[in-house]
Amino acid sequence: MSDGRDGVPETASDEPESSAPGASPDGGHAAATPSTHTVRLELVDEPGQLLAALHPIADNGGNLLSIYHERGNKTPRGRIPVEVDFEATAERFEGIVDALRSEGVNVMQAGTERYAEEVTILLFGHLIDTDLSDTLSRIEACESASVADVSLAAPQGTEEVSSARLRLEARAGETDAAIAAVRDLAADKELRVVEPLTGVDA
Q1: What's the pTM?
Q2: Long-range contacts of 69-78 (CB under 8 A, 24+ apart)
Q3: Could you give all domains of the chain from N- to C-terminal order, each with its CATH number?
Q4: Mean pLDDT of successive 10-residue segments in the chain (202 residues)?
């Protein structure tokens, strides 16, 4: 039976079929575009720590661009801040941050996850006897805040009551949660908290 075109079999149209949103012409999905991300890490000053921190980035699809190793500028806990720039898709970036934290690397800042609020508090008590380093570590473990600066005063010696001024950087809207975490920690160590201080030049 003729198809009305001199017996030539009917063929598919040369017009491409419409694709689903986000689909590539070959039927696959278009790959997400990588963008540049920065993570700020806090590393122990020991051989191999930097290399160990870079593995989760490379192993999870990050393309390393640059590393800024601030060896002469240690954090309040005596550790070394390191900034790493790399390319990754948004999805892979989240996986990289999770992988770093699961490996025990302290991620002080990740991409746009910047600490937007700042508060200064005072701690009084036996700060040395109760392990000041542990106190700072436990504050850092609270994901709402990071210890930006600490100033210790022990005029009567380390075995007597001392004071510390802590400048905390908190995520936007999470200052109250950060202060609550410090209160709980202070109660656990029988320390006294004076907070918050405003208008203080840290």
Answers
A1: 0.47
A2: 71/45, 74/45, 75/42, 75/108, 75/147, 76/136, 76/147, 76/148, 76/149, 76/150, 77/42, 77/133, 77/136, 77/137, 77/140, 77/147, 78/45, 78/133
A3: 35-110 (3.30.70.260), 117-196 (3.30.70.2690)
A4: 43 42 44 80 86 90 85 73 87 89 82 67 89 83 76 78 86 82 91 72 44
